[in-house]
Amino acid sequence: MSNITLTTTQRQTLLSLTQTTSLFNRTQGRLNSGKKVNSVTDNAQAFFQAQSLNQRSTTISTAKSTIDQSIQSVQAALTATSAVSTLLGQLQGVLQSAQSGSLSNRISDTTQFKTIGAQLAQLVKDASFQGLNLLTSTNSSLSTQFSDRTAAILKIQGFNLVATNAAGNASALFTQAHAFSSSGKLVFSNVVGVASLTKVVGASTAGIQGFSQLDTQGTQAGTVKASVAEAVFAGSINRISNAISQLNAISQELGTNVGILQSRANFSSNYSNALSTGANDLTLADLNTEAANSQALTLRQQLGIQSLTTSGQQNSSILTLLRG
Fold first, then answer.
1. Which of 65, 85, 90, 259 is most buried when burial is the number of CB atoms within 10 A of its CB?
2. Residue 34 lies in a domain
3. Residue 132, SS3 per DSSP
4. pTM of the prediction?
5. Could you tell me which of 115, 105, 118, 114 has the C-alpha nearest to residue 212?
6. Is 187 a member of any domain?
């Protein structure tokens, strides 16, 4: 190349073509990737700012996935409490039916009461989500991390609706009696009647075992006094009513936690989008502008090549004249 002599115009044209080719390649790269900043060499400040925003967005998005799972876990518990409320309502209806029913009705109501009671515990035990049941143990808990900050966390403590030692237990369904046995069955004599009635009934050492022992009219042999029967029914209905109130309080607490989780999930989604948008604003190319640039640079290349061709033709003409 040192033996080739170029005119000043040719050198300037070649330099312009080199610059145009560089700009054209950069423009094509932006069109292909959709980004104006693809590496740290394009714009170091924008590159690292966008990288930081994207990493933060990824962290928040990952946390949102955890939040979504937590919402479903608490929703599973809420669904169960709604079903339990229905069963308690049925128990209350059976009690009221037995209170004014005949002997045959009370015998039938006893069977219904015990059947419904047995399903209470089974339903609660089935309310697990991914191995976590918030309704069967106070040792169960659900911790949800909202972000990378240690303090950004919500811990939901579990309840034990079917606790065997439930008297005075604020996390149990029946707070006035030991309503459930270790096998999960509803203990009829603890929900209907009290231990002090054993001597009155006489025939049993385990308290009231069925509504047939309770005759509010006082006309059936082998039953407790009518006044005692009325007191037993009143106490039983009161226990069921308190259980319904307790369940409503537990459901309200769970519902509040769902509301918190949903608010955080919405915030995380919007926040993550804002972070991603910020990163894109720093790195994404305007494709319309880049397409126009590509056309302009292509035309500039063609003009430069034409200029070199014209310059070469002029030199050739001069050489022809000199030879002639």
1. 90
2. no
3. strand
4. 0.74
5. 105
6. yes
**Structure tokens that stand for 1 in this block:** 């190349």
Averaged over successive runs of 10 residues, the pLDDT of the chain (324 residues) comes to: 62 72 68 73 86 91 93 95 95 90 88 91 92 92 90 92 72 81 81 61 62 78 76 87 92 95 95 90 69 70 68 59 58
How far is residue 196's CA from residue 200's CA, in Å, rounded to a whole number?
8
Could you tell me if residue 305 is inside a domain?
A: no
What's the CATH number where 245 sits?
1.20.1330.10
Q: What domain range is 94 assigned to?
A: 63-266
| Long-range contacts, stretch 310-318, CB < 8 angstroms, 24+ apart | 311/7, 311/9, 311/10, 311/13, 315/7
Residue 92 covered by a domain: yes
Domain total of the chain: 1
Please state, in angstroms and rounded to a whole number, the distance separating the CA atoms of residues 309 and 48: 45
> Exposure string (b/e) for 224-260, b if CB count within 10 Å is 16 or more?
beeebbebbbebbbebbeebbebbeebbeebeebbeb
pLDDT in tens, 145-199: 998 888 999 999 999 998 877 555 678 888 877 888 887 788 888 888 655 554 4
Both structure tokens of 240: 């069921």
CA atoms within 13 A on the CB side of 74: 26
Question: Of 50, 37, 67, nearest to 263 (Cα)?
Answer: 67
Is the alpha carbon torsion for 250, 173, 72, 67 positive or negative?
Answer: positive
Cα–Cα distances (Å) from 121 to 124, 142, 170, 273, in that order, read 5, 21, 17, 44
Looking at residue 1, its pLDDT comes to 46
